[in-house]
Amino acid sequence: MFVSLDGIELAILRFGETVTRDVAPGPHELRAHNTLFRRRQPLVLAPGEHARFSVVNRPGWGTYTLMSVLGAGPLYLSLERDTEPAPLRLTGHPVS
Question: Which residues constitute the domain of residue 19?
Fold first, then answer.
């Protein structure tokens, strides 16, 4: 997924990846797209406020039918603001 904030590209995210940025308080616009579907989320941040979002590719109506016929189908995009505090998350690389 391609993610940008205020028109500036933040990252190209793959499954399980995250991106973090410090931004100034005030109005912003978060955008995400998976080349087929686009979502945008306007937000206003107060000084010291933290905002977390989840962006997910989801199968929808007709996805599995098209996958069985064509071998590929549309994955719908959802962009949602997380309302719960972030749990402790440890990341790393798998051991070979």
Answer: 2-82
DSSP 8-class letter at 59: E
Count other Cβ atoms within 10 Å, centred on residue 66.
13
Q: What is the DSSP letter of 87?
A: P
H or E element at residue 80: strand 75-82
Is the per-residue pLDDT at 61 higher than 80? no
Query: Does the pLDDT at position 91 exceed 70?
Result: no
pLDDT of residue 42: 92
Domain count, the chain: 1
Question: Is the residue at 48 inside a domain?
Answer: yes
Task: Tell me the Cα Rg of the chain.
Answer: 16
Structure tokens at 83: 């309302």
Query: pLDDT over 70 for what percent of the chain?
Result: 74
Please determine, for residue 51, whether its predicted confidence score (pLDDT) is greater than 80: yes
Residue 93 lies in a domain: no
Report helix, strand or coil for 19.
coil
